[in-house]
Amino acid sequence: MKHLLNTLYVTSPDRYLSLDGENVVILEKEKEIGRVPLHNLEAIITFGYTGASPALMGACAQRNIALNFMTANGRFLARVTGEVKGNVTLRKEQYRISEDKKRSLEISQSFILGKVYNSRWILERAARDYPMRIDSEKLKRKSAYLAECITKIQSCSDAGGLRGLEGEAASVYFSVFDDLILQQKEDFSFQGRNRRPPLDSVNAMLSFAYSLLTGMCGAALEAVGLDPYVGFFHTDRPGRMSLALDVMEELRGVMADRFVLTLINKRQIKPEGFTNKENGAVIMDDDIRKQFLTMWQAKKQEVITHPFLKEKVEWGMVPYVQALLLARFIRGDLDAYPPFFWK
Fold first, then answer.
1. pTM here?
2. What is the DSSP string of 231-260?
3. What is the pLDDT of residues 213-224, one digit of tens each?
4. Distances (CA, A) of 179 to 59, 137, 194, 270
Protein backbone atom coordinates (compact mmCIF):
# COMPACT_ATOMS: atom_id res chain seq x y z
CA MET A 1 0.00 0.00 0.00
CA LYS A 2 1.40 3.40 -0.99
CA HIS A 3 -0.11 6.89 -0.81
CA LEU A 4 1.29 9.30 -3.41
CA LEU A 5 0.00 12.64 -4.67
CA ASN A 6 -3.50 11.99 -3.27
CA THR A 7 -3.60 8.59 -4.98
CA LEU A 8 -3.74 5.34 -3.00
CA TYR A 9 -1.85 2.45 -4.65
CA VAL A 10 -2.66 -1.06 -3.42
CA THR A 11 0.01 -3.26 -4.98
CA SER A 12 -0.51 -6.62 -3.25
CA PRO A 13 -2.93 -8.86 -5.19
CA ASP A 14 -4.65 -10.40 -2.14
CA ARG A 15 -5.96 -7.22 -0.50
CA TYR A 16 -9.62 -6.31 -0.39
CA LEU A 17 -10.93 -2.76 -0.12
CA SER A 18 -14.00 -1.84 1.90
CA LEU A 19 -15.72 1.20 3.37
CA ASP A 20 -15.95 2.18 7.04
CA GLY A 21 -17.61 5.54 7.53
CA GLU A 22 -15.48 8.06 5.64
CA ASN A 23 -12.49 5.74 5.31
CA VAL A 24 -11.28 3.21 2.79
CA VAL A 25 -10.14 0.13 4.71
CA ILE A 26 -7.52 -2.28 3.35
CA LEU A 27 -8.05 -5.88 4.40
CA GLU A 28 -5.82 -8.91 4.05
CA LYS A 29 -7.45 -12.24 4.89
CA GLU A 30 -10.26 -10.27 6.59
CA LYS A 31 -7.75 -8.50 8.85
CA GLU A 32 -7.44 -4.72 8.66
CA ILE A 33 -3.93 -3.63 7.74
CA GLY A 34 -4.57 0.03 6.94
CA ARG A 35 -7.10 2.79 6.37
CA VAL A 36 -7.08 6.14 4.58
CA PRO A 37 -9.67 8.94 4.84
CA LEU A 38 -11.61 9.34 1.60
CA HIS A 39 -11.39 13.13 1.73
CA ASN A 40 -7.61 12.82 1.22
CA LEU A 41 -7.94 10.92 -2.05
CA GLU A 42 -8.38 11.76 -5.71
CA ALA A 43 -7.94 8.18 -6.95
CA ILE A 44 -7.40 4.58 -5.86
CA ILE A 45 -5.45 2.11 -7.98
CA THR A 46 -5.55 -1.54 -6.94
CA PHE A 47 -3.59 -4.41 -8.49
CA GLY A 48 -5.05 -7.83 -7.93
CA TYR A 49 -8.12 -10.01 -7.95
CA THR A 50 -9.97 -9.64 -4.64
CA GLY A 51 -11.72 -6.38 -5.54
CA ALA A 52 -13.66 -3.81 -3.55
CA SER A 53 -16.99 -3.63 -1.79
CA PRO A 54 -20.06 -2.16 -3.56
CA ALA A 55 -20.32 0.34 -0.71
CA LEU A 56 -16.82 1.64 -1.37
CA MET A 57 -17.46 1.81 -5.12
CA GLY A 58 -20.61 3.84 -4.45
CA ALA A 59 -18.80 6.18 -2.06
CA CYS A 60 -16.00 6.74 -4.57
CA ALA A 61 -18.52 7.46 -7.33
CA GLN A 62 -20.35 10.00 -5.16
CA ARG A 63 -17.11 11.78 -4.27
CA ASN A 64 -15.69 11.58 -7.82
CA ILE A 65 -12.76 9.44 -6.64
CA ALA A 66 -11.62 7.24 -9.54
CA LEU A 67 -11.35 3.61 -8.43
CA ASN A 68 -9.10 1.76 -10.89
CA PHE A 69 -8.77 -2.01 -11.17
CA MET A 70 -5.61 -3.49 -12.69
CA THR A 71 -4.36 -7.03 -13.08
CA ALA A 72 -1.42 -8.13 -10.94
CA ASN A 73 0.76 -7.66 -14.06
CA GLY A 74 -0.39 -4.05 -14.42
CA ARG A 75 -2.90 -4.36 -17.28
CA PHE A 76 -5.81 -1.95 -17.05
CA LEU A 77 -9.16 -3.67 -16.39
CA ALA A 78 -11.76 -1.06 -15.48
CA ARG A 79 -12.39 2.21 -13.72
CA VAL A 80 -15.34 3.14 -11.50
CA THR A 81 -16.11 6.84 -11.55
CA GLY A 82 -18.99 9.12 -10.71
CA GLU A 83 -19.44 12.27 -12.75
CA VAL A 84 -16.88 12.13 -15.52
CA LYS A 85 -16.61 15.86 -16.09
CA GLY A 86 -13.10 15.86 -14.59
CA ASN A 87 -11.82 13.28 -17.07
CA VAL A 88 -13.68 14.92 -19.94
CA THR A 89 -12.09 18.27 -19.12
CA LEU A 90 -8.67 16.66 -18.79
CA ARG A 91 -8.97 14.78 -22.08
CA LYS A 92 -10.29 17.80 -23.95
CA GLU A 93 -7.25 19.76 -22.82
CA GLN A 94 -5.04 16.83 -23.84
CA TYR A 95 -6.60 16.88 -27.31
CA ARG A 96 -6.17 20.65 -27.57
CA ILE A 97 -2.48 20.36 -26.73
CA SER A 98 -2.02 17.53 -29.23
CA GLU A 99 -3.31 19.85 -31.97
CA ASP A 100 -1.07 22.73 -30.86
CA LYS A 101 2.41 22.26 -32.33
CA LYS A 102 4.15 24.59 -29.89
CA ARG A 103 2.62 23.08 -26.75
CA SER A 104 3.10 19.54 -28.05
CA LEU A 105 6.75 20.30 -28.74
CA GLU A 106 7.30 21.56 -25.19
CA ILE A 107 5.98 18.32 -23.67
CA SER A 108 7.82 16.21 -26.25
CA GLN A 109 11.07 17.92 -25.33
CA SER A 110 10.56 16.82 -21.72
CA PHE A 111 10.04 13.20 -22.75
CA ILE A 112 13.13 13.15 -24.96
CA LEU A 113 15.27 15.06 -22.46
CA GLY A 114 14.45 12.34 -19.94
CA LYS A 115 15.32 9.62 -22.44
CA VAL A 116 18.68 11.08 -23.49
CA TYR A 117 19.63 12.07 -19.95
CA ASN A 118 18.98 8.52 -18.72
CA SER A 119 20.82 6.99 -21.70
CA ARG A 120 23.83 9.16 -20.89
CA TRP A 121 23.66 8.19 -17.24
CA ILE A 122 23.70 4.47 -18.16
CA LEU A 123 26.94 4.99 -20.13
CA GLU A 124 28.51 7.15 -17.42
CA ARG A 125 27.72 4.61 -14.73
CA ALA A 126 29.15 1.73 -16.77
CA ALA A 127 32.37 3.68 -17.42
CA ARG A 128 32.65 4.43 -13.70
CA ASP A 129 31.82 0.96 -12.38
CA TYR A 130 33.80 -1.19 -14.85
CA PRO A 131 36.89 0.82 -15.89
CA MET A 132 39.02 -2.33 -16.29
CA ARG A 133 36.48 -4.23 -18.39
CA ILE A 134 35.07 -1.48 -20.60
CA ASP A 135 36.67 1.04 -22.94
CA SER A 136 35.83 3.93 -20.63
CA GLU A 137 37.20 6.57 -23.00
CA LYS A 138 34.91 5.40 -25.80
CA LEU A 139 31.88 5.50 -23.51
CA LYS A 140 32.84 8.95 -22.27
CA ARG A 141 33.05 10.21 -25.87
CA LYS A 142 29.57 8.88 -26.55
CA SER A 143 28.35 10.39 -23.30
CA ALA A 144 29.78 13.76 -24.29
CA TYR A 145 27.89 13.56 -27.59
CA LEU A 146 24.67 12.84 -25.69
CA ALA A 147 25.37 15.87 -23.49
CA GLU A 148 25.53 17.99 -26.65
CA CYS A 149 22.24 16.46 -27.80
CA ILE A 150 20.62 17.45 -24.51
CA THR A 151 21.60 21.07 -25.09
CA LYS A 152 20.25 20.96 -28.64
CA ILE A 153 16.99 19.31 -27.51
CA GLN A 154 16.40 22.11 -25.01
CA SER A 155 16.65 24.75 -27.76
CA CYS A 156 14.92 22.76 -30.52
CA SER A 157 12.17 24.74 -32.23
CA ASP A 158 10.30 22.17 -34.33
CA ALA A 159 9.03 18.59 -34.08
CA GLY A 160 11.04 17.36 -37.07
CA GLY A 161 14.27 18.60 -35.56
CA LEU A 162 13.41 16.95 -32.24
CA ARG A 163 12.79 13.61 -33.94
CA GLY A 164 16.14 13.94 -35.69
CA LEU A 165 17.95 14.61 -32.42
CA GLU A 166 16.17 11.72 -30.72
CA GLY A 167 17.18 9.39 -33.55
CA GLU A 168 20.81 10.54 -33.43
CA ALA A 169 20.99 10.10 -29.67
CA ALA A 170 19.47 6.61 -29.87
CA SER A 171 21.96 5.63 -32.58
CA VAL A 172 24.92 6.82 -30.50
CA TYR A 173 23.65 5.06 -27.39
CA PHE A 174 23.03 1.75 -29.13
CA SER A 175 26.41 1.95 -30.90
CA VAL A 176 28.04 1.02 -27.57
CA PHE A 177 25.26 -1.12 -26.11
CA ASP A 178 27.25 -4.28 -26.88
CA ASP A 179 30.08 -2.92 -24.70
CA LEU A 180 27.68 -3.02 -21.74
CA ILE A 181 27.28 -6.79 -22.11
CA LEU A 182 30.01 -8.12 -19.82
CA GLN A 183 29.08 -11.79 -19.50
CA GLN A 184 28.00 -14.55 -21.92
CA LYS A 185 29.39 -12.55 -24.85
CA GLU A 186 29.58 -15.63 -27.01
CA ASP A 187 25.82 -16.16 -26.70
CA PHE A 188 24.50 -12.62 -26.30
CA SER A 189 25.89 -10.04 -28.69
CA PHE A 190 24.34 -6.83 -29.94
CA GLN A 191 25.18 -5.46 -33.37
CA GLY A 192 22.45 -2.83 -33.52
CA ARG A 193 18.79 -2.33 -32.74
CA ASN A 194 16.44 -4.35 -34.94
CA ARG A 195 12.78 -5.28 -34.60
CA ARG A 196 9.79 -6.60 -36.54
CA PRO A 197 11.30 -9.14 -36.24
CA PRO A 198 14.19 -9.05 -33.75
CA LEU A 199 17.19 -10.81 -35.29
CA ASP A 200 19.08 -11.82 -32.14
CA SER A 201 18.32 -12.80 -28.56
CA VAL A 202 19.25 -9.39 -27.09
CA ASN A 203 16.85 -7.58 -29.41
CA ALA A 204 14.19 -10.20 -28.69
CA MET A 205 14.44 -9.41 -24.96
CA LEU A 206 14.54 -5.65 -25.53
CA SER A 207 11.42 -5.80 -27.70
CA PHE A 208 9.59 -7.90 -25.12
CA ALA A 209 10.60 -5.54 -22.28
CA TYR A 210 9.49 -2.51 -24.32
CA SER A 211 6.12 -4.16 -24.94
CA LEU A 212 5.65 -4.81 -21.22
CA LEU A 213 6.67 -1.24 -20.38
CA THR A 214 4.35 0.22 -23.01
CA GLY A 215 1.47 -1.74 -21.49
CA MET A 216 2.32 -0.39 -18.05
CA CYS A 217 2.41 3.17 -19.36
CA GLY A 218 -0.89 2.73 -21.19
CA ALA A 219 -2.56 1.37 -18.06
CA ALA A 220 -1.15 4.21 -15.99
CA LEU A 221 -2.51 6.83 -18.39
CA GLU A 222 -5.93 5.17 -18.40
CA ALA A 223 -5.88 5.16 -14.62
CA VAL A 224 -5.36 8.93 -14.35
CA GLY A 225 -7.97 9.71 -17.01
CA LEU A 226 -5.73 10.47 -20.01
CA ASP A 227 -6.19 8.98 -23.47
CA PRO A 228 -3.17 6.71 -24.10
CA TYR A 229 -3.79 6.81 -27.87
CA VAL A 230 -3.34 10.57 -28.33
CA GLY A 231 0.30 11.56 -27.99
CA PHE A 232 2.48 14.62 -28.36
CA PHE A 233 5.78 13.22 -29.71
CA HIS A 234 4.44 10.09 -31.41
CA THR A 235 1.83 10.98 -34.00
CA ASP A 236 -1.66 9.49 -33.97
CA ARG A 237 -2.04 6.14 -35.69
CA PRO A 238 -5.01 3.76 -35.44
CA GLY A 239 -4.37 1.13 -32.80
CA ARG A 240 -1.15 2.70 -31.51
CA MET A 241 -0.91 3.97 -27.93
CA SER A 242 0.99 7.10 -28.90
CA LEU A 243 0.95 8.78 -25.48
CA ALA A 244 2.04 5.53 -23.80
CA LEU A 245 4.99 5.43 -26.21
CA ASP A 246 5.75 9.06 -25.32
CA VAL A 247 5.88 8.35 -21.59
CA MET A 248 7.85 5.15 -22.17
CA GLU A 249 10.67 7.05 -23.91
CA GLU A 250 12.10 8.45 -20.69
CA LEU A 251 11.78 5.08 -18.92
CA ARG A 252 12.96 2.59 -21.53
CA GLY A 253 16.67 2.91 -20.70
CA VAL A 254 16.44 2.74 -16.91
CA MET A 255 13.62 0.19 -16.71
CA ALA A 256 13.92 -2.01 -19.82
CA ASP A 257 17.52 -1.75 -21.11
CA ARG A 258 19.12 -2.05 -17.69
CA PHE A 259 16.83 -4.95 -16.85
CA VAL A 260 17.91 -6.90 -19.95
CA LEU A 261 21.59 -6.14 -19.28
CA THR A 262 21.20 -7.36 -15.70
CA LEU A 263 19.66 -10.65 -16.84
CA ILE A 264 22.61 -11.28 -19.14
CA ASN A 265 25.43 -10.00 -16.94
CA LYS A 266 24.21 -11.82 -13.83
CA ARG A 267 23.64 -14.98 -15.89
CA GLN A 268 20.00 -15.02 -14.83
CA ILE A 269 18.99 -15.98 -18.34
CA LYS A 270 20.63 -18.58 -20.57
CA PRO A 271 20.88 -18.82 -24.38
CA GLU A 272 18.83 -22.02 -24.42
CA GLY A 273 15.22 -21.23 -25.15
CA PHE A 274 15.79 -18.74 -27.96
CA THR A 275 14.74 -20.11 -31.35
CA ASN A 276 15.95 -18.96 -34.76
CA LYS A 277 13.17 -18.99 -37.36
CA GLU A 278 13.58 -19.43 -41.11
CA ASN A 279 12.99 -15.72 -41.74
CA GLY A 280 15.84 -14.80 -39.38
CA ALA A 281 13.62 -13.87 -36.46
CA VAL A 282 14.70 -14.90 -32.97
CA ILE A 283 11.87 -15.72 -30.56
CA MET A 284 11.65 -16.70 -26.91
CA ASP A 285 10.06 -20.03 -26.00
CA ASP A 286 7.42 -20.31 -23.29
CA ASP A 287 9.83 -21.25 -20.50
CA ILE A 288 12.15 -18.33 -21.20
CA ARG A 289 9.20 -15.97 -21.45
CA LYS A 290 7.83 -17.16 -18.09
CA GLN A 291 11.27 -16.80 -16.52
CA PHE A 292 11.58 -13.30 -17.99
CA LEU A 293 8.16 -12.29 -16.63
CA THR A 294 8.93 -13.64 -13.16
CA MET A 295 12.09 -11.57 -12.94
CA TRP A 296 10.31 -8.54 -14.44
CA GLN A 297 7.72 -8.75 -11.67
CA ALA A 298 10.49 -8.96 -9.08
CA LYS A 299 12.20 -5.92 -10.60
CA LYS A 300 8.97 -3.93 -10.40
CA GLN A 301 8.88 -4.51 -6.63
CA GLU A 302 12.32 -3.00 -6.00
CA VAL A 303 12.10 0.30 -4.12
CA ILE A 304 13.76 3.50 -5.31
CA THR A 305 13.54 7.18 -4.38
CA HIS A 306 11.61 9.07 -7.04
CA PRO A 307 13.90 11.89 -8.27
CA PHE A 308 11.12 14.52 -8.39
CA LEU A 309 8.90 13.54 -5.46
CA LYS A 310 11.84 12.52 -3.22
CA GLU A 311 9.63 9.69 -1.94
CA LYS A 312 10.25 5.97 -1.96
CA VAL A 313 8.27 4.09 -4.60
CA GLU A 314 8.48 0.71 -6.28
CA TRP A 315 9.87 0.62 -9.82
CA GLY A 316 6.50 -0.70 -10.95
CA MET A 317 4.84 2.47 -9.70
CA VAL A 318 7.07 4.85 -11.68
CA PRO A 319 4.88 4.88 -14.84
CA TYR A 320 1.84 5.67 -12.67
CA VAL A 321 3.63 8.52 -10.92
CA GLN A 322 4.76 9.97 -14.27
CA ALA A 323 1.23 9.66 -15.68
CA LEU A 324 -0.16 11.44 -12.64
CA LEU A 325 2.42 14.23 -12.96
CA LEU A 326 1.55 14.58 -16.65
CA ALA A 327 -2.17 14.81 -15.84
CA ARG A 328 -1.45 17.47 -13.23
CA PHE A 329 0.56 19.48 -15.73
CA ILE A 330 -2.20 19.26 -18.33
CA ARG A 331 -4.73 20.41 -15.73
CA GLY A 332 -2.51 23.39 -14.96
CA ASP A 333 -1.49 22.27 -11.46
CA LEU A 334 2.21 22.17 -12.43
CA ASP A 335 4.16 24.76 -14.39
CA ALA A 336 5.98 22.06 -16.41
CA TYR A 337 5.99 18.29 -16.77
CA PRO A 338 8.92 16.86 -14.76
CA PRO A 339 10.67 14.06 -16.68
CA PHE A 340 12.06 11.04 -14.84
CA PHE A 341 15.75 11.93 -14.45
CA TRP A 342 17.35 8.89 -12.82
CA LYS A 343 20.87 8.68 -11.41
1. 0.79
2. -SSSPP-TT--HHHHHHHHTTIIIIIIHHH
3. 988 898 889 888
4. 55, 12, 17, 19
